[in-house]
Amino acid sequence: MKRDIVVTTELPAILQLIDGFLGEPLDDDAPVTFRLDGTPCTPLYKGSGFYVFMDLRDTSPHQVDVTCAGFTSVQTTLTAIAVPLLKPLAELIVVLELGPSPAYSYSPDATLLCGKVTSGRTPLGDVEVFALFSDRQGTWQWRKTRSYAAQHDSPYFGHYSLALPSSVSGAPVSLRFTKDGHTSHFERVAPTRSRTTIVGADLLPTNA
Fold it and tell me: Which of 91, 31, 90 is nearest to 66 (CA)?
């Protein structure tokens, strides 16, 4: 009896990086560095934010750490693409959005909320900053980010930046700052279009 023989191999994993503010692929000259399972690596760059990882030798999950100036560091999981394909190749590409850090170079016309989050005057990282607002049509929208927490010796530690649509200009924005183990902090501001509004917060420990 004749049997069909199926040979299974692996293709490199493919990662696409997206600028979280622009919603577009990361610039070709962006200073991105990668660590694959804790070891520095240099994937093959193919343009339009696509990076090809050639060193995945099996289909087990691999941890990839991504660092780029102006963005918060992120971590994701990559798996080598098995052949024959069980899905279209486009569906097997990992798309990773990089959120802007306080050092991000926003466009001059951006409407921003920025500030520093502290706890008893000590910078506090990894605080969720949640903004709720309505546009000119009365539709509720929201944005969120976190205070910078990548490095304690960074001048941006505890700082945050949050870009808002220009349509929110002059309308009240409700802000909520939250972190486990700390009391929540609430603010209400009316940002100006194409300007930066500074809003800080001090979160006290819940056992204080």
Answer: 31
